[in-house]
Amino acid sequence: MEQTPAAPQDIFAALRTEVLACLRRILPELPEEALSRVAVEPPRDAAHGDMSTNAAMVVAKAAKLPPPKIAAPLAQALAELPMVAEAAPAGPGFVNLRLTETFLLGQVPLVLGAGEDYGTSPAGQGVRVDVEYVSANPTGPMHVGHCRGAVVGDALANLLAKAGYEVTKEYYVNDAGAQVQALAYAAYWRYLQALGTPLTEEEYAASTPNGLQYRGEYLIPVGEALKAQHGEALAPGARPADPSLWLDTVREFAVARMMDEIRGDLAALGVEHDVFISEAALVKAGVADRAIAELAAKGFVYEGVLEPPKGKLPDDWEPRPQTLFASTRFGDDVDRPLRKSDGSNTYFANDIGNHADKIARGFDELVQVWGADHGGYVSRMKAAVAALSGEKPVGFEVVLTQIVKVMKGGEPVRMSKRAGTYITLRDLIDEVGRDAVRFTMLTRKSDAQMDFDLDKVVEQSRDNPVFYVQYAHARCRSVLRQAGDPAAVELTGVPLDMLRDPAELALIRRMATWPRTVEAAAAAREPHRIAFYLHDLAADFHILWNRGRDDATLRFIRAEEPEATRARLALVAATAVVIRSGLRVMGVAPVEEMR
RNA sequence: GCGCCCUUAGCUCAACUGGACAGAGCAACCGGCUUCUACCCGGUUGGUUGGGGGUUCGAAUCCCUCAGGGCGCGCCA
Known about the structure:
Radius of gyration: 29 Å
Number of helices: 22
Strand order of the largest sheet: 7-6-5-11-12
Oligomer: single chain
Number of strands: 15
Distance between the termini: 52 Å
Mean pLDDT: 90
Strand content: 5-15%
Structural class: alpha/beta
């Protein structure tokens, strides 16, 4: 006996295959590349049917036929398919399809069978992609500014993994350069304090290279720990010793402590990176210098003098010969310096090493999640990756996350690093909870600015998407608990044709678009679409629930209709599965009930 | 001055990367509400997609231009 082939998860992809087959039959002469733009999508206006294809329009030119002349026979051919109830040409050349109810209802056992893997797609074809995100300087605890990038990067990595990419989550630790040097001096100050130094803060600051840049109290325990470990060895008499005695030790110690702190912050947010790459380690291993030598060998490095920037000049501007990377050869506006005047590498030079290292590790795609203040850095890095790529170009993409303005009671919360009033990531999580933080950070596309309203995100109302989606899941679970939590297998053989209400079918249609939502969001590198999808799905479910309020015959559990009840429980269970599947991508825990 | 991002209903935002009549939630207006535990429900109104030009069967989406907002602009990372 022949087994029926497993129903496709993505019914739109399946339909597209059929559409292409029909087209090839109707127009055998059609070149293959003309088919690439053929799309099969749910139409925006549901009145047009379940599916719509632009096929006739996009191949019209290649076929040298007006779209309607193609749409008509295409519709006829598609109408023959078993899952199609009706196919009709429409508008300027669309073909609209209505699917049979049997086919639509078949999605429910499909979802239940796949569980939370529903929507997992092979579209990424195992392409190896590295997603680098957060990469906050190890100079202090994470604050809200880092938070959006952390959430967007993590969700994007999850999304790509679900869409069939082989993903590595990466954190690039900027533990070389002036910032961590300044950190070391600040930690040293706290160490002196722990030893009971006679110096005032001002006296000490005056003696450090760049003043005392980090004054936060979070370094006090670091000073204590240094004392516990080294006693007075690094500062005899609690007075500053020559930096050669302590600088490396203190810097490494402080960086390690800050990274512990940051890892703790990330864990509180539910973010876990696969790899942490240390800038200092890469430099020490000569990776950056080798990468620059490689660029030099290709003829992209030269000594030159940059034009001064237009407009207001920096105070100390003077023309100076520098080691430059010819990034303009790859579309950048100006060539970029690789060495500082003291001969050490610029941040850019080391980051070239970082990217060379990734390329050497064999990634096909490099994705960077950066804050908007790094926007001006994109084209030079893109140029560097292009220049470093060999035969096979390595993809390089940057997702920029715009600023988050924290609001409280409709007013922006003022933040000042100097006054110590900036909000840490921990503050944020403590105040509204990890899941609300994560969900909310994904309720805007990342290249738009966002207001994060501390009051709104914990509000239990319809206009809070966090609540709205969680509430839908809690309602699903509530219904299932009442029914004694039937297992998925008990729900797969039920008479689904009892589901006839338009709201029930609308919910199934929505669930059927989950796989293609995953693929489209992954392809666009836009994890926020998952949040919006879940909101739509939740809305479809709430509508159905509310119909049960007015019309008792539409309630999920009906003692007098055991068959309909089982069918509806299957629908509810499937809804919960899809919500969980989506929340998992977002890194948000589904709730069983609302408190 | 230059570069990048943004501008969509009164407000906050979507729009599946070029598809049909641009959609949600608030707000406003009209009506309903002893609820399968659940902090409401249904409906109506609301748009020259910042302005102008272009590309094509078709534009919020691509190109040019102007205006407004944000971010950045050699030895910070």
